[in-house]
Specification:
With 118 residues, the chain is an all-alpha fold. It has two domains: 67 residues, Orthogonal Bundle (Arc Repressor Mutant, subunit A); 45 residues. Helix 1 packs antiparallel against helix 2, helix 2 crosses helix 4 and helix 5 runs antiparallel to helix 6. It is elongated and about 65 Å long. It starts with a helix and ends with a helix.
Length: 118
């Protein structure tokens, strides 16, 4: 299951770089949780054909993440913003400054989430 979540996230980042066929098969497998046999029947191809296409698509997604690191960077940003929010909540400063800081951090968190849809 964890592997499917990872692939789904990578698919959202890099799916446009896959062929339409690869993207469709991967979406059926990771997002709709269909088995290889179910996909093969639905798409009128062999189970081995599904397996090979999925393997190639997964390799491409992992290679793109290794080179570009968009998901890794997004996770680092998300964690950093969460830490900043916790620190800002605890600092002693004027109420208006604190509210402005928390608001800005919250806006950045929302922007990050809205952009990636997570």
């Amino acid at each position: 299951m964890e592997r499917n979540v990872e692939l789904s996230l990578l698919l959202s980042w890099y799916g446009a770089f896959l062929t339409e066929r690869q993207r469709t098969l991967l979406e059926l497998h990771v997002d709709e949780d269909l088995s290889l046999s179910e996909i093969a029947e639905r798409e009128s191809i062999s189970r081995q054909g599904v397996h090979d296409a999925l393997r190639r698509a997964e390799e491409q997604l992992l290679e793109m993440e290794e080179k570009l690191g968009l998901e890794r960077r997004t996770n680092a940003l998300r964690e950093g913003l969460s830490e900043l929010f916790a620190f800002a909540r605890d600092i002693a400063c004027k109420k208006e400054q604190k509210e402005a800081l928390l608001s800005r951090i919250g806006a950045l968190q929302n922007l990050l989430e809205d952009e990636h849809g997570v």
